[in-house]
Amino acid sequence: MFKAIFLSREQEQFRAVLRDVSDAELVAGTPEADVTVAVEYSTINYKDALALTDRSPVVRRWPMIPGIDAAGTVIASDHPAWKAGDRAIINGWGAGESQFGGLAQRARFKGDCLVRVPDGMSPRQAMSIGTAGFTAMLCCLALRDQGVEPGAGEILVTGATGGVGSIAILILTRWGYRVVASTGKLAEAEYLRSLGAAEIMDRDLLAVPGKPLQKERWAGVVDTVGSHTLVNACAQTRFEGTVTACGLAQGMDFPATVAPFILRGVKLIGIISVMCPQARRERAWNALAQDVDRSRLEGLVREVPLGESFDVAREILAGKVRGRVVIDVNR
Length: 331
What we know:
The protein is an alpha/beta fold. The protein has helices spanning about 25-30, 45-55, 125-145, 165-175, 190-195, 225-235, 260-265, 280-290, 295-300, 310-315, and strands at about 1-10, 15-20, 35-45, 70-75, 85-90, 105-110, 115, 155, 180-185, 200, 220-225, 235-245, 265-270, 300-305, 325-330. The chain folds into two domains: about 1-115 and about 300-330, Quinone Oxidoreductase, Chain A, domain 1 (Alpha-Beta Complex); about 130-270, NAD(P)-binding Rossmann-like Domain (Rossmann fold, 3-Layer(aba) Sandwich), CATH 3.40.50.720.
């Protein structure tokens, strides 16, 4: 038996509890898995918060152990690439949605979906980064792959106090970019400057409808917000600049025109982390191990025990969480 957050739905009645789960239940919830992991740390992302509060149909199969992220040590494996004692990370691939996830002391996953904890990184540090930081790195790598160099101009990061935004700032400033952080939490300006942001921008300047083409400013954008914010970011992006889109905090709509794309050659690149191919996944995690300042990373992390996951989920949905929350599943 082991402790886990357990979600169930019976006759439209949703329940979320912390309880003991048997190994038999774990196997039933992960029938295709071939690697068993003793989880050390997990985390709560926006998607996890939706699942824990039943605010959105994130869970595709019931019952469910939520948690799209986990890091720990392999204790049993039928997969040729993994053996007991290996340290592994899972993020995405349906964990916490269609198969049991990481908010538990034990988990089972497909070996083909796991990534090794990079040398020099601990499982706790991996979960300090989590899917949010992984997504941030995918965005930053996309900017660099599109030829957006530090000397090309300013980079806009929206939703800057969130997990993706915070770690994107860490990465981009480490790489030498000048970052402008857009946020609705202007009281967190010093926090954002501590991460490396050169300028703080009120999100209200981007959140309302604007002109199809606006004054050019951004060489690149990391957008976690969507809707009018993403539209305005595109409209303000410089000639042949690149915008990466990975979130929908403001909304899924995109009320835009084609003007930035056909008159300025702006590139809009969608970033998906859940089904990201394994080679790209490994590249991102290795880059995270090298290019995230560990001391600054620790400054944006709060650690809580497994039983406080429900409170954290509500805080995230209320917009009261900045940075990252790490879950110690063993306390």
